[in-house]
């Protein structure tokens, strides 16, 4: 009987509930969605990685691609030459630090920090529309409270930083049409 209740522990469903909640909170970007498609095309360059954490840039690029697609403001294109804008990025910091420790000095709670350098350029002119650094932070525990692993915490970290990046590039969208 205990094994049946173990399957339905709230902590097992927390990551799924958080994912559903974050997806439900994502709304269409009304600022850009009313503009003609050809004026808001974006090529997402694969992010670089200046840290020692492998595959971090791949996961972040895919998370950002998904987030941009869900917001329906910028229109992602596969061909660089078909895009009005090109978005470049580089992960310049990723740090995992232990916070709380047990009696044997093993960490029980971790802090994840990420800093990304981003640059949005207009493809035809090569001019920089905006350039900035964005950061995000989250915590997770492998032993106490709502237990989760680093992979799940990273997804929350990506969600936070993708939202911040998208909001910045959406706010910096040039209102005038490009010259022919």
- Biggest sheet: strands, sense, closure? 6 strands, mixed
- Tally of individual domains: 1
For this structure, the quaternary state is single chain
Give the overall pLDDT as a whole number.
Answer: 85
Order of helices and strands: HHHEEHEEEEH
CATH architecture: 3-Layer(aba) Sandwich
- The coarse silhouette is elongated
How much helix is in the residues?
25-40%
The low-confidence parts are none
CATH topology (level 3) name: Rossmann fold
Structural class: alpha/beta
Q: How many strand elements?
A: 6
Q: Strand fraction band?
A: 25-35%
The CATH superfamily appears as ABC-type transport auxiliary lipoprotein component
CATH class: Alpha Beta
Gyration radius, rounded: 19 Å
The number of distinct helices, counting runs of at least 4 residues, comes to: 5
Distance between the termini: 71 Å
């Amino acid at each position: 009987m205990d094994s049946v209740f173990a399957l339905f522990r709230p902590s097992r469903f927390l990551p799924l509930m958080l994912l559903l909640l974050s997806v439900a909170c994502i709304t269409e970007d009304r600022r850009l969605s009313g503009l003609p498609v050809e004026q808001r095309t974006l090529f997402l360059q694969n992010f670089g990685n200046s840290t020692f954490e492998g595959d971090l840039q791949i996961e972040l690029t895919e998370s950002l691609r998904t987030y941009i697609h869900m917001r329906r403001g910028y229109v992602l294109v596969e061909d660089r030459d078909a895009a009005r804008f090109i978005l470049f990025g580089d992960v310049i910091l990723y740090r995992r630090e232990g916070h709380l420790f047990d009696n044997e000095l093993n960490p029980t709670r971790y802090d994840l920090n990420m800093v990304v350098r981003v640059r949005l350029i207009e493809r035809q002119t090569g001019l920089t529309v905006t350039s900035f650094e964005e950061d995000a932070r989250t915590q997770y525990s492998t032993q106490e409270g709502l237990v989760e692993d680093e992979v799940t915490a990273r997804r929350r970290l990506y969600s936070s930083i993708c939202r911040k990046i998208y909001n910045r590039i959406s706010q910096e969208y040039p209102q005038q049409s490009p010259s022919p």
